[in-house]
Amino acid sequence: MKRLGFLLLTTLVINANTGTALALPAARNVYSQDAQGSNSHGIDLKIWAGYGLTINFIPTGETIKQVWLGDPSRFALTSNGNLCQRGASDENCGSGGATILFLRQIKPISFPVLTSSQDGSTVITVITASADGQKQYQFQLIPARGKPEYTSLIIKPDSDKPQPLLIAEKIPVNKNRLNNTNNITNNITPPNLEKKPRLTVNTSQTSTVSQRNDANAVAYGLAVAVGNGAIKPKSIVWRQTQDTIRLLRRGKSRTEAIRLSGIPQEMFNKLMQWGQTQ
Predict the structure, then answer these.
(1) What does DSSP assign to residue 201?
(2) How many CA atoms lie within 13 A of 183 on its CB side?
(3) Among 148, 178, 173, 156, which residue's Cα sits nearest to residue 243?
């Protein structure tokens, strides 16, 4: 009986440790226009050995029609539906409704008639269709090893993009007028004021105010970064910064805002630094 109890306890401990070790990283999110490379240099995707990567088009409402790999000797792909064969003329081909691609690394295969890049990277082209017509996406696939930073890429519709934040221009202060105003107020005798009870500070309200201050600092930092050319308007980092500001103003912590928006930690710290010095 004791032996059975020991084995049961050992099994529970192993299962608990296994569940912790298999925790997956957060998904990576991009908007449709950015993934098409319309206003950016395109998207680089790392595929970690032993993990693979899914590309999810479900939020956009698009179906995948065709997929081409520039070099199929290092990567394999599957989908959750039928795809059109190359040269197919039937408009209803790929009617299986594929919306997700799964890519994974494979051991290099030697194709006599194909060439390969020196670093093992290649390009994948995805053709999708929806009520708005066809779209073409291109991603650079880069083989990687170790612990993955992400195992899923989610394509979001452009309608989900946050609107650009308008930063009010700072009004210069006239120091002479300010000094004159101070002299006037110093000569006025203040009326007797009744002592008011101290106000109790709500910690949740204090936290919200702090997060709003962080959002304003990032917003001012973004204005500085755009002004000095560190960040280009409409770029991926610019959109990540906009998402970060929106998340902070919704009450998210710095850690949550960075994780959900995908903005690099170093860039966030730099924007905070620039914003707080304004």
Answers:
(1) P
(2) 6
(3) 156
